[in-house]
Amino acid sequence: MRTTKCQLLVTSLCVMLLGLSIATLSTVTHYGLHFTLISNISLESNAYRAIHNAAFYFGICLSMALILAALLSSAAMVRESQCLTAMGFFCFALAFCGLIPAACWRYTHSTEVENSMMDVYDLVYEEVRRNISSLRRHELTAIHEAFLCCGKHSPFGDTTDIEQETCPSSRVHDAGQYHLSEADLEAISIQLPLC
Q: What pLDDT, on the 0 to 100 scale, is given for residue 23?
């Protein structure tokens, strides 16, 4: 009996660490430079902002459910309380029920995060190209510096002066050949719990 209690306490500790790691990942994802740059760009139809916030709140809720379940399970093992055990299982059930729609959303909307980020980038790039706003020029420069990219590749091979003004100095000679790389976009979609 004592061995079983020790195993359950170790399992509860692992679940608590999982909950803490999800909370940490959600926080880093929400406040990380790459994510906030795209999210903070003020566009009327910035779909990425909604995904960004939903992923953060989902991650925090999931981590709280797991931490609460681990704490209740630990207390139930120590006190041998059926009520605490039932509440712990209820929290595990809530976490599981929350993961099912998230997994379905991930499967059915597999490229939505990437597409929404690219839409924001394309809109900012086009506004800078048309000289609509100096604020957009600063935002485009910040995106280029954060993602280490430089403009858009044109099928005609011509690039504009945008790359000269907004690209990091080390990337100016490669202007038009660097876009948000597949590795950057995949890393972003892996780090977002809902993606």
A: 94
